[in-house]
Structure formats: structure tokens, C-alpha cells
Amino acid sequence: MTSHQFPSFPPSYCQRWRDAGLWLDVTLHQGFDDTVARIPDSVGIITPERSYTFAQLKETSDALAAGLLGIGIGKGDIVAVQLPNWIEFFYLQIALARIGAIIQPMHTVFRQRELSNLLSFCETDAVVVADSIKDTSYSDPIREIWSELPCLRKLIVARGEPNGDNECSFDALIEEGRSHLNRLDDLDVSAGDVFYLNFTSGTEGNPKGFLHTHNTLISLYKILMAHMMETVPDTISLACSPMTHSFGHFTSYTCAIGGFPVVLIDRYNPKLLLEIISSARVTNLSGTPAHLIGLLRYQDFEQYDTSCINSVGVGGARSSPELIDELEQVWGVKSANTYGMGETVLHTRTAPDDSEEKIRDTVGRPVFGAELKIVDPKDRSVTLPTGEIGEICFRGATLFLGYHNQLEKTAETRDDEGWFYTSDLGLVDEEGYLSFAGRAKEVINRGGTKIYPKEIEDVLNTHPQIEEAAVVGMPDTRFGEVVCAYIVNSGDSELGVEEIGKFVEQKQVMKYMRPEYVFQLDAMPMTPTGKIRKATLQQQAAEFAKENKT
To answer: What is the CATH number of domain 449-548?
Structure first.
């Protein structure tokens, strides 16, 4: 086993959340075992090919855990997983938690360069990859960079065959483990152990791998599941987001801890989604705005029976008011706007009984156990009054343990009172609702006046021809920065600066906030998790300004 050094919470901090009833000292695998004991023959996971009962899920995940121990993977080891939303991913979530190892999801779009950066930085002990997806190899890239990864000990190939002494097949591990379940006896895994490592941003230059323990994650889901059992006991969930991203990863916890069936699909495909929503009678659908817009805009949408959907969760990026309206028109649901991040999981959310105005314009109020304040970004000791935009701060039981191998970066984000400084901007109204204003690094400074891109984006997204809009600052010799808009135009006529200017003027947008440059794109550059790559657009705007000497 590799001797990884992980940070730890002070004892007084831990006791605070135990005393508040927000840390339950339950691990993921313990919560899963409780579910299995309660409903062993109920369906837990549904895939397009078949369904799996909880008893079947436990039998296979136990065998996998024993198999992993048999090849020397155990407590404290970091195991990277690059898989689509396959049943194997769920088995790994439970098995790795059971043996005390840490799961490190990696997006399937990552190739040699990104993989080498992440695996080297984390000093990863083992990697689980799909042998291939759509004729693209995922095992070969690991083999090609193996010499760059001195800490890597094992490559585990799912749905394929191994090639070399340091490799083994996923299925073979399970088969070998079935005969050695005694390895699972007397394992020492506690709720205070690290078991989840994921990344918030890019893989080069500034990696930020956040660490969570069972207590910082599972306690929240245990409490949420108890509430769901009382209020929506017949929930069947489907997440469009990949399990390599926290938004999709945690959806399976509703199955493991709550006993609610979860549908897994290995790729985002509107036709496949609609087919399985109809056949499995999915009640709870979640995804990014891009996922949901793609589904609603699918040309044959009306041919499928999606009347079973009674709850929609939108995350990963801010919902436009138009999307919220459309979800209510189509399914009669008031989608919840949420605000959170990998470091905090869930910070605020709107509720179904909130007013339309609050659901449209805010990301809700703090969830139970969470606290919120707004501070001056230049002097964090100053708490700003109601209605003023500043840095959003979080305090709560779901705060991450720290950034992996980055003690100084961790220290920069929090203080001795347990507050986490997000670097995001927002304001709180008199009723305690948070309005998200954007990332601090995205604020446009036009001649000393701060402009928040989201305000303009919300206006542009109301244009009947604009499918999607993103606003960034463009360098300018006179003002420092000016407003630059990128749009995806779904109409027949071109939308230039003049047309956009007239539209935003009609919407009573102040003159200095109006876009001075407008670029039309066929599609926005997106992250693997469905967010617009603002950094890419900022770079394009800067290059345009340089070439044209604006």
C-alpha cells in the first residue's frame, strides 16, 4: 500500500457536527448493507440491458472487494476510475468504500496528457478503465504513460482482457474474490476515513483535488434519504451527468443508502434517455441545463410517454428562467435551483413552495445544517449587508476535508471558525435567498464599473432566436474591458451587435452593460460535465482584441 498523507479535522470540529446530529458516523458500505438487509429482493439498479436486486449488488460488490484485497489494494490506496455510467462503477463505489480505499473518478474525455497529470499528482495506486468505448481504447493510453507513473501498481480492465503482469480483468477479480470473502473479515474502516477524491478544475498547472470522508458525505445523504422515504417513497432516479462528476456520482447514493432504484445509462443520448424514462417509469430526472435542453428539444420528444416524471433537479450550471418555465409547462414540476460545489456538496436550494420569483432569480436558501454569509472579497473580515454583492462563504457539516497534497491551498480557503471562502460572488436578500452573480474571475471591469456576466446572459437567453448565451470581458485599450457576447443562434437571421443592442435596450439594460462585440457559434465549448468553458471564450476574446487592437 502507498502511504498517502491526508489531512484531518480537529477533534473539536468533529464533535461539533456529531453534537448537532449532522455527522452520523455511518460509512457508505454500512449504509448499503442496512439497505440490503431491509429490501434484499428489491430492484436497486436498472440498466438498458437488465435490472439488479440489492442482494445481487451486494454479492458482486463483496466479491470485488475481496478480489481487490487479493491484488494488494486496500485501506488508504487511491484507485482512479475512468468508466462511463456502467454497473461496474457502482460496484466500485461500494467495494472501495468497504476496503477503505479512495475512489478517484476521471472523466472519459481525458487522454494521455490529462491522465498523466492527474495520476502523477495524486500518486494513484491503481486505475480501473474500460477496455474500449465506441472503438476508442482506454486501456492503451494507460499503458503508454505507465513509465511516467512510478506509484501506479495495477491496471484493471473492465469489459476487456488484461495485457501484462501488472494488469487484471474486472470480471476475473470478482470471480477470484468469490472464493475469498474471508478477506473482508475484521476490516478497519471508519466514517472519518477519506473515501472520495475528485477535481474541481483543470488538470494542468492548478489542480484542486478535494477530499471527502464518509461523514462529510454519507451523513447528508442518510438524512435526505430518510426524508425521501417519508415523502416520495416510489422514487426512481436517472442522472444524465456522468458518475465521474460529483453531480452524477452521488445519485447512486440514493440507491445505496435509501433503497431507491437508480437507472444507469452509459452515454447522453436523448433517444435512449426518452426510451428508458418511458419503460422504467423514471420519476426523478437530473442533469445540467444543457442535458435537459437537449432532451426537451429532441425532435421526437412528443412521441414518448414521460408523464411519469414528477421531479427534476438541475445542477452543474445555473438554470435560465426560460428553462424553469419550460420544465413546469412540460412536466408540471418546479425544478429546484441549487448552489454547491465539490468542496461543499450542497449549499443552498430553492423549494417547491417558493414563489416563482425566487425560483427564477435565486439559488435558494441554505439547506439544513449549512450557513451562509457574504464578505468583502478584498477584506474577508468584513461581512457585507443585505443586498450587496460579495464573496459567498459556506459553513456546514459537508465541508470537504481539504485539497489533496495542497495544505497551503486548503488554508487559503478557510478560517479558524470553519468558514469556507468560495471565490464565487453573490448577494443575499432580506429573506435569506442567495442570488448567484458569477465567478470572481469572470467579473468584467469596464472603466472601473463592475459588470456581472450573468445579468446580461439572463437577458440574452430570453431572445427567441438565442439557444444559449455566454458573456465575457474583452480587453480594451480605453475601458480596460468591454462586454463581449457569444451566442448559439437557433434562428434563420443573423444576430449582430446592432440587433442585440436593440433587444437589450428594449429590456432596459443599462448602456454600459450592452454587448459591444457579438460572436455566433454553432455550439458552446463545454466541459465534460456540461458547463460552458468561460476560460476558452475569454481566451478567444483576448486573441481577437490583440489581432484587432481594440
So the answer is: 3.30.300.30
**What SS3 class is residue 538?**
helix
- Report the predicted TM-score, pTM, of the whole model to 2 decimal places: 0.86
Handedness of CA 528, 531, 532, 533 (dihedral sign): negative
Alpha carbons 392 and 206: distance in angstroms, whole number: 21
Backbone angles phi, psi at 391, to 5 degrees: -80, 135
Phi/psi region, residue 249 (left: phi>0; alpha: psi -120 to 50; beta: rest), is alpha
Beta strands in 270-321 (DSSP E): 284-287, 311-314
Name 477's Cβ contacts closer than 8 Å, sequence gap at least 6: 549, 550
- Per-residue cell: 449: 464599473
CA distance 469 to 458: 8
What pLDDT, on the 0 to 100 scale, is given for residue 324?
84
SS3 content of the chain, % helix, strand, coil (to 5): 35, 25, 40
Helix, strand, or coil (residue 58): helix
E strand segments, 7-83 = 43-46, 51-53, 78-82
Other CB atoms within 10 A of residue 338 CB: 21
Give me Rg for the CA atoms of the chain: 24
Domain boundaries in the chain?
14-215, 449-548
Residues ≥6 apart with Cβ < 8 Å to 355: none
- Within 431-524, where are the H helices? 453-460, 497-506
**Which of the four pLDDT bands, split at 50, 70 and 90, describes residue 359?**
confident
Alpha-helical regions (H) of 303-452: 321-331, 356-361, 407-412
Q: Cell 470473502 maps to which residue?
A: 181
Query: Which pLDDT band, with edges at 50, 70 and 90, does 49 fall under?
Result: very high
Q: Which residues contact 144 (CB under 8 A, 6 or more apart)?
A: 112
Sheet of strand 284-287: strand arrangement: 51-53, 43-46, 262-263, 237-239, 284-287, 311-314, 336-339, 348-349, 365-366
Mean pLDDT of 373-401: 96
In this structure, are strands 167-169 and 154-158 parallel, antiparallel, or unpaired?
parallel
pLDDT tens-digit readout, 182-195: 999 999 999 999 99
- Tell me the C-alpha distance between 426 and 396, whole Å: 18
**CA distances, 344 to each of 98, 247, 355, 419, 494 (Å):** 24, 12, 26, 11, 42
Cell 459553513 identifies what position?
395
Confidence of residue 109 (pLDDT cuts 50, 70, 90): confident
Question: Which amino acid, residue 43?
Answer: V
Residue 318 confidence (pLDDT) above 60: yes
Find cell 494488494 and name the residue: 72
DSSP 283: -
CB 516 within 8 A of CB 483: yes
Q: Which CATH superfamily is domain 14-215 in?
A: ANL, N-terminal domain (3.40.50.12780)
Candidates 236, 255, 238; CA nearest to 247 is 238
